[in-house]
């Protein structure tokens, strides 16, 4: 089988984070979300542990998520440390996106695979989500941070001991052109050993 490397490179290089404030609000069909998540599950994992777990919030469930995040922020932040802009972002983002995927990592019960490897596999899975969004012309945004990776999110995901909440992935139709990206050139990040 032959694939188009140039198309793949275009998808990889044109993938951009597009924040929920720049989503149109148009609904993304469940079938597309299923495809995005199925592609996530085709990521590699050491020992085939397949550590990914997902909770998808669409429609009215997004409001429940927004209120949960608001409560959690106010519960865990001392009153004099509350940052209104941060709270606003936390609450508005689920409302602005079409679908929000809470991402969890479940440890293999045998413990034979390191946590590091399970987390690395999760990064591969989320990249598959990002790239599938790009291929569909959809906007994606992976958000982490204390609330989104904290114990309450872990409980919401129903993860076992050692499991970790790894943030939220927001999906929607973009209202903007993808922003211009920038990456360090290869000569700044790669060392070649040839003899
Ligand atoms: C593991 C991970 C966590 C991230 N968490 C956040 C976040 O909490 N808030 C945010 O604004 N961006 C977050 N991002 C998005 C990055 O800021 C973004 O990928 C980076 O600026 C590069 O932009 P690009 O995705 O458009 O290439 C996260 C990205 C990754 C890979």
What does this structure look like?
The chain is α+β, with helices and mostly antiparallel strands. The chain is built from seven helices and four strands. It has helices spanning 5-14, 30-41, 61-76, 84-96, 115-135, 151-156, 186-189, and strands at residues 52-58, 99-105, 139-143, 164-172. α2 (30-41) packs antiparallel against α5 and α3 runs antiparallel to α4. The longest helix is centred in the middle third of the chain and has 21 residues, at 115-135. The protein binds flavin mononucleotide. Flavin mononucleotide binds next to β3.
| N-to-C series of helices and strands | HHEHHEHEHEH
Biggest sheet details: 4 strands, antiparallel
| Percentage of residues in helical conformation | 40-55%
- Strand composition percent: 5-15%
- The backbone outline, from C-alpha atoms, is globular
Strand order of the largest sheet: 1-2-4-3
Total helical segments: 7
Distance between the termini: 34 Å
Give the tally of β-strands.
Answer: 4
Rg calculated over all Cα atoms: 18 Å
Write the layout of secondary structure elements.
Layout: H1 5-14, H2 30-41, E1 52-58, H3 61-76, H4 84-96, E2 99-105, H5 115-135, E3 139-143, H6 151-156, E4 164-172, H7 186-189
Helix pairs in contact: 2-5, 3-4
List keywords for this structure.
single chain, 195 residues, globular, 4-stranded antiparallel beta sheet, alpha+beta, 14% strand, binds flavin mononucleotide
């Amino acid at each position: 089988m032959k694939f188009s490397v140039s198309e793949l490179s275009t998808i990889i290089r044109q993938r951009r984070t597009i924040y929920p404030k720049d989503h149109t609000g148009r609904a993304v069909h469940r079938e597309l979300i299923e495809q995005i998540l199925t592609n996530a599950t085709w990521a590699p994992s050491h020992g085939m542990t397949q550590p990914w777990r997902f909770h998808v919030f669409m429609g009215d469930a997004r409001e429940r998520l927004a209120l949960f995040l608001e409560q959690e922020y106010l519960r865990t932040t001392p009153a004099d440390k509350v940052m209104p802009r941060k709270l606003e972002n936390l609450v508005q983002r689920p409302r602005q996106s079409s679908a929000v995927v809470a991402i969890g990592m479940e440890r293999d019960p045998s413990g034979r695979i390191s946590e590091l490897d399970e987390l690395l596999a999760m990064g591969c899975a989320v990249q598959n989500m990002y790239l599938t969004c790009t291929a569909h012309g959809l906007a994606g945004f992976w958000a982490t941070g204390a609330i989104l990776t904290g114990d309450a999110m872990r409980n919401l995901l129903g993860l076992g001991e050692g499991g970790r909440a790894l943030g939220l992935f927001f999906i929607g139709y973009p209202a903007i052109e993808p922003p211009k990206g920038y990456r360090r050139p290869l000569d700044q990040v790669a060392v070649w050993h040839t003899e």
